[in-house]
Write a structure and sequence with these properties.
- With 308 residues, the protein is of the alpha/beta class.
- The protein has a single domain, classed as Rossmann fold (3-Layer(aba) Sandwich).
- It has ten helices and nine strands.
- Strands 1-2-3-7 form a four-stranded parallel beta sheet, sandwiched between helices.
- Helix 1 packs across helix 7.
- 46% of the residues are buried.
Length: 308
């Protein structure tokens, strides 16, 4: 399983082992740099996998996407394309490709339906990343049609939870806000600055729920159409920030930096297909998930690498 040591990959590996799956192989970059075709070929030669879950990717929040559009596009596209080609060549029985909600057009009607995936250009700050991941849907469908590959494509919404990335240069919004509010509380700050206007909305999926959704898709889904994976609950960034502030116990003011980008106006998924096709319904509420994530960060922040 590529990306199996990462934020989402770790609970997927745990879920596989809990189901009795043997010989779960998780390649590491030091062994197999998936941007290198020879390394990808060697990985398949060494492991001869029966099944593949492809979670490999370079990800980050708005700041990281704005700073690295070229490498985000190249690394994500080349890794995915090469891994899927070798899966075809080595006759992998079933392959699951994990896409991204960033592939959707900027002004997709909410809730996002899979049929709208191609009806416009993605939001500019993360378009290179989103388009690189969307090309893997094209590859998956083309390989299914030409070669008969059993290959499926799942689109998770924004993830959060214990083990998230709290690096201020590359983290997503929930981790970034938790870090800011905890530090402001502990230092006695009067205010915390938050990017944008607070008006955009987002949907979030707890990482353990996402892992369960992927495993159910791997077990039960076998069609060319992409599938959304989310909680179905939409929240504004303003409300999210106030909720995290209250859960952390920060008493100060929120200051909105309107010179910074909001990103996509709305993100909210129609999750009907996942429920109907493989019975996935998220089980963790946002409030419970935030409490667990804040608790994990409070317990582990001393051991996290801080480059901020």
């Amino acid at each position: 399983m590529t990306g199996g040591a990462g934020f989402l990959g770790s609970p997927v590996v745990d879920g596989l082992r809990a189901r009795g799956t043997r010989d779960v192989f998780v390649p590491r970059k030091t062994q197999y740099d998936l941007r290198n075709r020879g390394a990808v070929m060697r990985m398949f030669e060494d492991t001869r996998p029966d099944y593949l879950i492809n979670l490999a990717g370079v990800v980050g929040g708005i700041s990281a996407n704005r700073a690295n559009p070229g490498s985000f596009f190249y690394d994500n596209a080349i890794m995915g394309i090469q891994v899927l080609e070798e899966a075809r060549r080595f006759g992998v029985e079933k392959t699951l490709v994990v896409g991204t909600i960033c592939a959707y057009p900027k002004f997709t009607p909410a809730p996002f339906q899979e049929k709208d995936l191609w009806n416009g250009y993605p939001e500019e700050t993360n378009a290179p990343y989103g388009l690189a991941k969307k090309m893997l849907l094209v590859q998956a469908q083309a390989y299914r049609e030409q070669y008969g590959m059993n290959i499926i494509y799942v689109l998770p919404v924004n993830l959060y939870g214990p083990g998230d990335n709290f690096d201020p240069e590359s983290s997503h919004v929930i981790a970034a806000l938790i870090k800011k509010f905890v530090e402001a509380r502990d230092t006695g700050s009067d205010s915390v600055t938050v990017w944008g206007t607070g008006t955009p909305t987002r949907e979030f999926l707890y990482v353990d729920d996402a892992a369960e959704g992927l495993l159910k898709a791997m077990e039960r889904y076998d069609k060319p159409e992409p599938v959304n994976l989310g909680s179905g609950v939409e929240v504004s960034i303003l409300d999210l920030a106030h909720t995290i502030r209250d859960l952390v116990g920060f008493k100060g003011e929120l200051v909105w930096d309107r010179t910074m980008p909001d990103g996509q106006p709305r993100r909210n998924l129609d999750t009907t297909r996942a429920r109907e096709e493989f019975g996935f319904v998220a089980s963790t509420t946002l409030a419970d998930g935030l409490r667990r994530t804040i608790g994990w960060y409070e317990e582990n922040r001393g051991s996290l690498i801080d480059v901020g």
